Amino acid sequence: MALSPDGRRLLTAGSSLQIEEREVDSGTLLRVFPKEHSRKINSMAMDIASKRLVTAGDDGLLVIWDLATGNPAKRFQAHAKPILDVAFSPDGTMLASGGKDKKVRVWDALTGERMFSLDAHKDWVRSVAFSPNSILLASAGDDHTIRVWQARSGVPMRVLRGHSDLVTKVGFFPDGRRLLSAGTDNTLKIWNPHENQGLADLPHPDLVRCMAFSPDGKSIATAADDGCLRIWSTEKRALLHRVATPLNQVQALAFSPNGKKLAAVGKGKGISLYDTPSMELTAKPEWLDKGFASVVFSPDGKSLLASGEDGSISRLDLDRLRWSQLIPGGEQRGTPIAISADGKWLATTTGQTTIQVWKTEDWSAHREFKGHAKRVLDLAFSPDGRHLASASSDRTIMVWDMETGGRNSVLEGHLMPVTSVRFSPDGHRLLSASFDRSIRLWDPFRGNAVITLNNHAAGVRQAVFSPDGQWIASAGDDNQVLLYDGSTRMEQYRVGQFKSLSDLTAVVDAHNRSTPSAGATPWTTRQLLGPSTSRGWSIIRDGADYVILDTQANATRQAREQALLATWK
After folding, report:
1. Exposure winner among 63, 296, 324, 329, fewest CB in 10 A?
2. Helix boundaries (H) for 405-557
3. What angle do CA 502, 98, 507 make, to 5 degrees?
């Protein structure tokens, strides 16, 4: 199935062996294309710029159609066995196909000539996809692997392993930095096609209860049941500080808006305040004889708001170091708390399933939200303060409209209680964590899960975005904090790994020779930046210098480097 560029017409194909074009709004049949396939059509792809369509089927044929006339422009035998998927490159110059013969083949989309055939898969190839810049090609299949290739040369770059069953679909994100795959193991996985995966492991000796990003996103604080707070560098992915805390089981952490203070709350006499980055204790837990469940700083950084285990809300004036109780407590335990970015609204729960929103100006009740069947475990405001998300033991997430008081959406998919929920910094995505061992990224207003990650070996207690959105971190009962690259920008681009300098040079030369016809720009040394690989040659950046590495011998070849760079600049 494919949509026309204006979204008004729908093209379908299947067991009828013919393509039908219908009007989307009315369903009216507009035309039927001539019959070219002799067996079922399995896949089709559209090149919007040139108004072409390609179809592939069980007969092993590729047929390229002219959408203006509805007639075939080219027809050729591409595979000896059924083709399962076909794709146009975004620049319209190439076609890729994969099928039951275990082969991936790339074709010149203008002439129909075969450019090369790739035979690395050990079983059926079910999906092929080009990167948005047409430089990379990904393929996936029944051998449980995803393979990444140089699209114009067929040079292998990476084999991504992680699925435990057939991989049915693969595709690039619009920015080209990530790859999404789906499999019959009931998982979606997100990959960095240049480095296997954008995932880091921050080990802990005991259960990780909570974590928080610093405002600049350069560090992350974690608290584990071994009685220690840890500060990690997100850039170096290394431990910066480890300090023992006087608190009994830390329940929540929060950085002040300027990043100079870190608050920790826990059970019993439960609050400590630290100077950062020194991690010197500046406030002691005996300030208030009460256990706390959650904590937030006010947007101006002048006060600290903490919810007690009894459901009360208390405020600490950081200038006077004085406490005041804003909302009295009851018998409720572990009350979640959230404050809007402008500081106008505070959300808590009254009882276990009712959400109460307060005006911070006079602490009067503003709105009440009801809908969850079981206890609400976490709350989060959208960055603009127009929406509130709630996570519950009933395994759902609800998104509420602050203006109308209505419910926008119910997000369902987690198999166990949802422990954490956060909006992305731009407000377009919602991140959740659950005891079902997964974290999920949602479209909060359409109500669908965009990505599901199952990298933890036990329940996940918290998942958060860094303030700039470049990182996602999750903490689980497997004593692990996992750090994902969540940025949408790419400053370094890796072309591939090569067995010799001559292979590398040949790929660069081949690309630059094809530049006039492909309409692309020549490769430069900046585009060839990338991390070193386990074997072969790689180009990395060392300060201001570009260095070619023989990664098998782990040695720098300065003389050859200078010769190559002279020809590439």
Report:
1. 324
2. 501-518
3. 15
Please identify, among 163, 191, 219, the residue that sits at the C-terminal boundary of a domain: 191
CB-side neighbour CA atoms (13 Å) of 478: 19
Q: What is the pLDDT of residues 330-342, one digit of tens each?
A: 544 457 888 898 8
Does residue 251 lie within any of the structural domains?
Answer: no
Place of tokens 């419910």: 407
Q: Which H, E and C letters describe 285-334, residue by residue?
A: HHHCCCCEEEEEECCCCCEEEEEECCCCEEEEECCCCEEEEEECCCCCCC
For residue 360, give both structure tokens: 């911070």
CB atoms within 10 A of CB 320: 9
The CB-side HSE value for 400 (13 A sphere, CA atoms) comes to 21
Helix (H, G, I), strand (E, B) or coil at 562: helix
**Residue 296 domain flag:** no
The amino acid sitting at 244 is: A
Instruction: Tell me the chain's radius of gyration from C-alpha atoms.
Output: 28
Q: Give the CATH number for residue 8.
A: 2.130.10.10
Q: E strand or H helix at 542, and its extent?
A: strand 537-542
Give the helix, strand, coil percentages of the chain, each rounded to 5: 5, 50, 45
Give the span between the Cα atoms of 240 and 222, in whole angstroms.
12
Instruction: Name, in order, each residue with C-beta under 8 angstroms of 563's C-beta and a sequence gap of 6 or more.
Output: none
- Residue range of the domain that includes 507: 501-568
Same domain flag for 145 and 16: yes
Whether residues 413 and 557 share a domain: the answer is no
User: Is 514 a member of any domain?
Assistant: yes
Q: Examine the domain organization and report whether 528 and 447 are in the same domain.
A: no
Q: Which residue in this structure is represented by tokens 């450019």? A: 115
**For helices 558-568 and 501-518, what crossing angle results, to 10°?**
10
| 56 plus 181 within the same structural domain | yes
Question: Mapping DSSP to helix (H, G, I), strand (E, B) and coil, where does residue 269 land?
Answer: coil
Q: How many domains does the chain have?
A: 3
Same domain, 449 and 512: no
Residues 85 and 161 in one domain: yes
Regarding whether 342 and 402 lie in a shared domain, the answer is: yes
Which of these, 283, 224, 213, 281, lies nearest to 249 by C-alpha position? Answer: 224
The pTM of this model reads 0.47
Instruction: Look up residue 457 and give its DSSP letter.
Output: S
Q: Is residue 433 part of a domain?
A: yes
Place of tokens 């199935």: 1
